[in-house]
Fold each of these.
Amino acid sequence: MLRGTLLYLADRQSIRHFVTHNRLGRSSARRFVAGETLEEAIQAARALNQRGLTVSLDHLGENVTDAAEATSAAGDYCKILDAIKQSALDANISIKLTALGLDIDAALCEANVRQVLDRAKSYGIFVRVDMEAGAYTERTLRLVECLRQEYEEVGTVIQSYLYRSAKDVESLIASHTRVRLVKGAYKELPEIAYPHKEDVDRSYQQLMRQLLAHGIYPAIATHDVALIREAKAFSASNGIDKSRFEFQMLYGIRRDLQEQLIREEYHVRVYVPYGTQWYPYLTRRLAERPANLLFVLSNVVRR
């Protein structure tokens, strides 16, 4: 009930405007968002690198409906790549296809993605194509499949709550495409996604084992301690070296667990979002984990 309500709020423009222009809302968001500028994001990434954590930078924004804005987003992604190179950061980037024009025109989107990948290729920096709502899954995977024929520097994301994900993982493993495995954070219909947490977790565990055993440097993206424990046990019992995969976590969430995994000599990457379009991202994070909502509410009470 709470998760559905929060995901509903993510799409409400009037509430988005109120929260993003509210001092308390902006202050609370800083726990989960590195800032609104690239400079702030680079500072956050540098601090994480110093703690032994690698980074995936994400300039927040999605569902662009103006072609010029989509082209501008491609330029912004290229600026992130330039900054990573110039700052000698241990970082890559995540991109969203709807920020690059997927809702406008497929050809426009592909041209924008190629611009980003050309820059990334020149620097040897990996690019992760984020997975968005279920309506975009097929188009995202088909574009990534096409791009993989020319670019080694591109991978994508699989959401364990979708029924189709088992077949998608098989295809991505066969094409040697790097995968970040997540549970999924969008509100989906029961016709395409598991509605119950236990089924989502079961799917995640099965896909995780498959990727660890056969995938190309998979990213196990979760804060679920039970699933992390299972990943560690499965890799150890199957002789899968720690260098063959990484754990991924979100900026500002479970820092203690991030540091524990680093001490245990696992690779850990932190997903670092930034930008002015942080409201949809924040509401999805609150929907995923009640502890995040408690943190925000406690900030409001203290003020």
Amino acid sequence: MARKNIPGYLHHKASGQAIVVLDGKTIYLGKYKSKASREEYEKVIADYLANGKKLPPTKTMAGISIQELAVHFLGWAEGYYRKNGVQTKTFNFCQKAVSLLVKFYGNESAKDFSPLSLVFLQKKWVEQGLGRQTVNRNVRVVKQVFKHGQKF
């Protein structure tokens, strides 16, 4: 009987997210064992198999939601912001900044995010009682998310 060799639904313990590794690329699916992550896994695998066991062409920012962009960014940041194998505080700042971005704009297309949207987020951080330096750092992280999104 032939093996199907379908990549597995895996647990990324450091982030608590479900992942699948396709063609050497890690794809984050959402919270491990959640219904949404299982559905995303099935969708990703279906696209992978339909494309002849190759990753489908990457989406442009016009076709990607802010939530998808945030997942890609945090996946990158998790590996980048390490020192001697230990997660740095910068990654935690990234997670906090991205969480509010996703809360208010997660389902919108990345191309629809405007400077006024960023001003709205700034006001929300100020309302939370965050200081000027923290608000400015969060703004830089949000800008970094979109700059990272231009790479794929």
